[in-house]
Amino acid sequence: MNKMKKHKGVFAIELGFILFALCAIFLFATDISHKLLVRAKLDRTSFALVNILKERYRYFDGNVVNKLNLDVTETELLEMRKVAARLLNTTEEEVAIKIESLVDAQFTTTFTSARFDSLGCSVGSISSEAGLAPTESGTIYPLYRVSVCEEHDSWFDPFVGGSTEDIAVTSSSVMPGR
User: Fold this and answer.
1) Is the CB of residue 64 less than 8 Å from the CB of residue 138?
2) Cα-Cα end-to-end distance for the chain
């Protein structure tokens, strides 16, 4: 009977550990699924924007053979930011976007929004993707990449004592021009 009194609080302590573990698993799964949904939204947006960029050069004064009018410009960054704001259902100031072009597998042009840099979003250089550029009859087609980034709060990290409350989710799409 004396042993029963010593073990009375053990059940409550074990239940506390199990409930904490279940809450942690639930928050982790919820956090991961939320990040995957955000990533899917950014994937759709970056893919749509890179296709718009590619088709713009195809139909409006782009000349692949003579390498004319193939680089991206600051104006296109602003226009892509407007479209991205509509696709992401946010304001233009909140859109973090980076557009890049690689012409003739060597000339890189990059434009980045201020929000992209302030969030600390990172993507490698488009130069590392030069092997993806199709070549036909000695003509190397241009590559375009659009990267979009959003900041979202992390539910799991603060729960387990982490210091990161916000995390940047980034998506990039690369497409060859025609």
Assistant:
1) no
2) 85
